[in-house]
User: What shape does this take?
Amino acid sequence: MDHILIIGAAGQIGSELTVALREVYGAENVFATDVKHPSRDIAEGGPFQLLDATDSRQLIYFAMRHGITQIYHLAAVLSGNAERIPFQAWDINMNSLLNVLDLAKEVPEIRKVFWPSSIAVFGATTPKKNTPQFTVMEPTTVYGISKLAGERWMQYYHRRYHVDVRSIRYPGLISYKTEPGGGTTDYAVEIFHDAVRKGKYECFLDGNTALPMMFMPDAIQATLRLMEADASQIKVRAGYNVGGVSFTPRQLAEDIRRHMPDFEISFRPDFRQAIADSWPQSIDDSMARTQWGCSYSYTRGDIVRIMLEEIGKRTG
Ligand code: AKB
Assistant: This one.
């Protein structure tokens, strides 16, 4: 019987992955944790406990006590926020990962570890269009540096200690269940909240900035599929490129106008523009597709329709 530990269950990915994993493994077998309190869904839908993964003793005690067999370590300070607190962000992002990897190395019952990487591992010298799986990687942000270093550590623990580590380089993730969490791709979530609440949005990126994005249900499916794949299929032990759909703020605004003809958008780029400019515009994810069957269902049009409907219901 698998016992799953989720670190960062209150965050953007955690809030939805916890629900999906509880459906697969049974709510009582999925132990959600975070340094902050989660939504009611997460807190009441199965076991939840406050846990700080940068504290290795807390982590070891928790894993032993609950007989943990798989870890999903999702906690991170995202790109925009990390630039405001670079050393703290490095500390949180790296130490928590190293604690998890070391725990998995020491405890043979822990069979698999998932840790999210990001398109932030790429930098200004990376080819921007159809960015390959293996290419130049010179990230410019502290978040990107921590994700690239994390990927190297994953590979190291796999090669040296045979820890079964798996990872996806997520593009921008779009979801309606949690508020945006301090990332550069967050404009693609904020825009829907402001469209519904105010009928207008001031975007912190330039209108023509193309970035790869993915609707959260596709990201959850991809994560589950990667983790269910047989170990022999997983040839990349750093992060897999996954593509989703690429678009600009202007294109997104045009799609919103199809549902809300009076919606207005204006552009006032801030420090996040330089971050976005250093990231890929689209991704080659052929390795993820061929090695473990990664695929997506949601188009840009689907995402816009569902986001407006769901945020509309929640905003009343
Ligand atoms: C961010 O914008 O920081 C994240 C990411 C692309 O990893 N959404």
Observations:
- The pocket of 2-amino-3-ketobutyric acid is lined by residues 78-79, 118-120, 143, 170, 172-173, 183-185 (CB under 6 Å).
- Residues 86-106 form the longest helix (21 residues).
